[in-house]
Amino acid sequence: MSDGNEPAVTGEEVRRVADLARVDLSDEAVEQFAEQFEAVLADFETLDEVPEVEGEPDLVNVMRSDEIEEGLTQEEALSNATETEDGYFKGPRVS
Amino acid sequence: MADLNAYITKARIEGADDGPLAGKTVAVKDNISTEGVETTCGSRMLEGYVPPYDATVVERLKAAGATINGKANMDEFGMGTTTETSHFGATLNPVDTDRVPGGSSGGSAAAVAAGEADLALGSDTGGSVRAPAAFCGVVGIKPTYGLVSRYGLVAYANSLEQIGPIAPTVEEAAGLLDVISGSDDRDATTVEQGDGSNYAAAADSDVEGMTIGVPVELVEGADEGVVETFWDAIDELEAQGAEYVEVSMPSVEKAVAAYYVIAMSEASSNLARFDGTRYGLNAVEAGDFDDLSEAGNWNEAFATTREEGFGPEVKRRILLGTFALSAGYHDRYYGKAQDARAWIKQDFDESLEEADVLASPTMPVPPFGRGEGLEDPRTMYLADANTVPVNLADLPAISVPAGEADGLPVGMQLIGPKYGEETIIRAASALE
User: What residue of A is the nearest CA neighbor of B254?
Assistant: First the structure.
């Protein structure tokens, strides 16, 4: 699928996307991903040749009445959190 | 036999005293929630995570009398075709332990093939039930989208994935599908077509008068030994009274690219929830800090957690998905992939007017040697060429052993129309 005319992907672009996705990356990972992404994005580019067809989305809304049901207890909901305080999840500071 | 590493967690969850699965052991893929039993998705991110509730399919297994004997190994978050990306080590193929069992539900298929479980559940986003069934020489079904509830399945790509059964025979796989299928208030995408089903009864081997279409595009590029075994199996179906026709589906050439754009985009959104706050690896542990105040602000803390918690294939897919959805690229990649999806659906609709079922090799290649697919991610992606079109079209498909090539199992994939589970089960049973 790849024809050699691959869009160049820079380390800077990989870092920008990793930043959006909140994933830290080592320098080696950035370099390796930049190289691999070029080949994968070249595959994605071939979608340019896809014709437009009439797709009828067979989606319907599924409605239900808004009734209170039993859910998880607060204790159950917190049971997998490493950091909690006074019955709440405790997260890192915002800024 | 060597330890196959088919399970991440061994357990014994007893079901009801009687029911259709009484006395049967079932391995459950480790991305399906089991109340009180660790569910890791094959990832360091969820190591130690214990769900406070059961997935709907697990409730149904228990009600049917099954004994769940453990959580099956898998590619991390379902992202792989070899079960080598698991944080808990690779699963070996019981047919040949130098080979991979396929993936991502490799632990489920290996457990069934080796007799470590009578039956298993996997999940199939782009072939993750069918590929390991083919590589391990067992039967796997990817149901029509909406037939089986996804409540309690840890999401990877919602618009593509379904939970499906793996078993030694077509009838047993169909019987397990009878147990898990059916509508569920907790998954609004489920349909009523699977309610009160009796798919097992369709495993009657009666293919007299059935038309089997072969999309030439799905056979052309395959390995020689695989192709030979495939045609022998088609001859076998013809000998039993089925008719064979060639069909053409030009759209499938774009299926792998469209699949990866859509799956990675959905993954980048679904996996955003893993930030270590409510569950999973916390920034304190990930960054080896003394307490949370040292982990920095929330962006820094989350990024630390996610660097340490996710393996390379998961990061690759999250990043590529984020890229495909980012400003300036959305129409070029995601929009085009949706066009391709509509085109593929149309091609299937047309082909299934000419034939009752469509047939292809499940995998274009025999099982990879261990380590072979990890070097270049594209090699792995391209091996999914025959399975991903089915997920893009929301259709049902089964992989059934078709024979061997060079002593290794070859699977035949049979694809049916929407809710055509009985037809593919009938056709597959004729090959046993």
Answer: A47
Task: Answer yes or no: is pLDDT of B118 > 70.
Answer: yes
- Residues on chain A touching B256 (C-beta within 8 angstroms): 1, 43
Number of domains in chain B: 2
CA distance A81 to chain B (A): 5
Rg (CA), chain B: 21
Residues B176 and B279 in one domain: no
3-class DSSP state of B171: helix
Do B296 and B379 belong to one domain? no
Residue B412 sits in the same domain as residue B282: no
* One domain, residues B39 and B158: yes
The answer to whether residues B61 and B25 touch, using CB atoms and an 8 Å cutoff, is: no
DSSP readout, B178-224? HHHBS--TT-TT--STTTT--GGGG-S---TT-EEEEETHHHHTS-H
- The ipTM estimated for the assembled molecules is 0.91
SS3 string of A20-52?
HCCCCCCHHHHHHHHHHHHHHHHHHHHHHHCCC
CB contact under 8 A, A1 and B346: no
List, for residues B72-109, the tens digit of each pLDDT value. 999 999 999 999 999 999 999 999 999 999 999 999 99
- Of residues B33, B86, B123, B128, which has the active-site annotation? B128
CATH fold for domain A11-49: Histone, subunit A (1.10.20)
Phi, psi of A75 (to 5 degrees): -65, -45
Task: Evaluate if pTM is beyond 0.80.
Answer: yes
Do both B149 and B297 map to the same domain? no
Of the candidates A18, A7, A61, the one whose C-alpha atom is nearest the C-alpha of residue B322 is: A18
Catalytic residue check, B336? no
Containing structural domain, residue B94: 7-205+358-429
Q: Which residue of B has its CA nearest to A61?
A: B188
